[in-house]
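[Backbone geometry]
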Amino acid sequence: MRTPRLASAVAATALLLGGLTACSSGGGGDTAKDAAASAGATPSSAAPGGGGAASGGGSAAGAPKPDAKADPKAALLASAAVMEKARGARLTRATGDGGSGSYSWNRDAPALELSLKDKGGERRMLAVGSGLYTSLDAETAALMDGKKWLKLAPGSAGGGKAGGAEDYGSIAAVLVALQPAAQLSANAAAGKLSRVGEEKVDGVDTVHYRSEAPIEQLAKLLPIPDGQRQLVTDQLKKDGDNSTVDFWINGKCELLQQTTTNTGIGLDGPQTFKYTEIGSAPQAKAPADSEVMDFADMLKN
């Protein structure tokens, strides 16, 4: 699932503009060095599973305070650069009945594992490289020799029979809706930006920014493979033609929390996700072949 190098280009732009100082009120010093390190050459510890240098927004004494007067566009671009180089984080859903997972947004091999809980039920989705999977409920699994995952394809069941194509589109939409570097950079370029104010996220000082933009305009800037662009755009627009995204950015230019109105997964109202263990979260792995049922095979059965 190779995607355009938009976020990398934005990271380079942020460095050239000096945008990495936009998140901290210190005007340089250790915070600027930390941000530059995150946005420059990536040390091995910054890759998922490497025990990353990024704190993920811990409340340790002496944590840099974000600059509440920073230009919103500069702040989003600076955070995009830092989050691009972090490459991964744990996800926690703070809306509905909750949910959690992990996301590695390496542009050449994205890996997402996410569990969403609502109304007493649980939906699990998995994306590893070009493979997209949705979990099978216990009753269906029993009919499929105990297989746990259904592998989806863009043209599943001729464009939507039994929900195959729609499920594929919803997971593909989540990959861009929750990709922090992509969302930050696309909204910095296309959104009507505002600074909401200073707020704490799990005890950490952040500045809360808001972006409003048409989905059609944002989708052109998001790293969606050409063959999936219309499918993903249509899925995102099921939550409305216009997008509102809120970002909470700390003094190290890390995105700690995001609320978006357009996730493409059919949930009620805006969805809030927190990013923790930034730069050090484990990477999701593809399920064993013995646990997977291909969509076409399921229809045959």
User: Anything to note?
Assistant: The domain at 1-301 is CATH 2.50.20.20 (outer membrane lipoprotein receptor (LolB), chain A). Confidence is low (pLDDT under 50) at residues 1-5, 27-55, 157-163. The CA atoms of residues 93 and 273 lie 4 Å apart.
